[in-house]
């Protein structure tokens, strides 16, 4: 395995309400990516189940040790000798669910897991309302995990709007950042590309983010457009809205080159913010 170059694949899906069907779709696409030369394959947020109904969600998910998607993707990683990053699956955690990502090495071992920190509690202009905190429990720790090619910063979806998280991951050694997602169509059309290019440029890192795309069984519509972006902000691979595997060659030397060219991480300085109150004026005198 070349320590400076590898091929990454974003596995774009349209997960539904049947965990086993979603499992089989993910496995087939990871195998397809491996057949096309991928050394690293990432699936999207909520690979295992896209379901807005809380009761149905809780009836279908279980603890991590019993999850069929995690088990199957561990098997396919071992079978094909490929590193698999599960963008996330739903895992039962007491009276709530964790939105949890996993990194699986080429021997099929889970080497790291990450729980989504920022929960999507928003009201959108088109009437969509989301309250992830009612169902999900948020994580508390950022995670940079070593891969054969360098450190990967693991995040999920809404995390991508919080630039300080990615700066911290890059400052702690991450060369590759990721935000596998189930972005809504509305917000994706407005912000998906610019957020990914910004996070890549700000940190001099690759961004690798697999996405859910299209109209799902539960009625939601996700944006798709899985992305691989290089440290200069160039898009190397992009999906549309249909499921598939989207591959790009990653040259890890580009991280050091870009960070040397524009050393924003090195040049960052601590600062404080001073708030200056409004100046009192005599309105009558001004008039």
UniProtKB/TrEMBL annotation:
Gene3D superfamilies reported for this sequence: Carbon-nitrogen hydrolase
GO molecular function, one term: hydrolase activity, acting on carbon-nitrogen (but not peptide) bonds, in linear amides
Transmembrane stretches, start-end: none
Superkingdom of origin: Bacteria
Domain CN hydrolase residues, every copy: 6-252
Record-linked InterPro entries: C-N_Hydrolase, C-N_Hydrolase_sf, Nit1/2_C-N_Hydrolase
Keywords in alphabetical order: Hydrolase
Record-given protein name: Putative amidohydrolase
